[in-house]
Amino acid sequence: MLKLQLFRYEAALALHATNLLTRAFCARRVGIHDLPHSVAFFSGVEVDKAMRKDANSECKTPSNPLGMSAGYAIPQGETLSVYDALQKTGSNVFLEAKKPKKFSIYEFCGMYEK
Questions:
Q1: Global pTM?
Q2: DSSP letters for 39-99
């Protein structure tokens, strides 16, 4: 169970990425060459320890009047957008994109400038 907790954010990011690749493949096959952001990623991937309708739901029922937190000590889960998943995994894709990089053809080719 510990390993599942360690990689929960990477798994959420992987779900976002596979959804993007699947939709891009299908869109390309039918001749659509541009994929809107609203369909490229899931609106949110829920990371939770229990199966429930919503990650933030307490699931109070007549047979479980205390709910999941008080009755079974199961904390609420979280819903991650693609940006949240990138932030939680420590990915700095957006930070790197904002930094201007100096391009050197010599460095690109593995040679040194004279």
A1: 0.70
A2: HHS-S-EEE-SS--SSTT----BTTBTTHHHHHH-----EEE-HHHHHHHTT--HHHHHHS
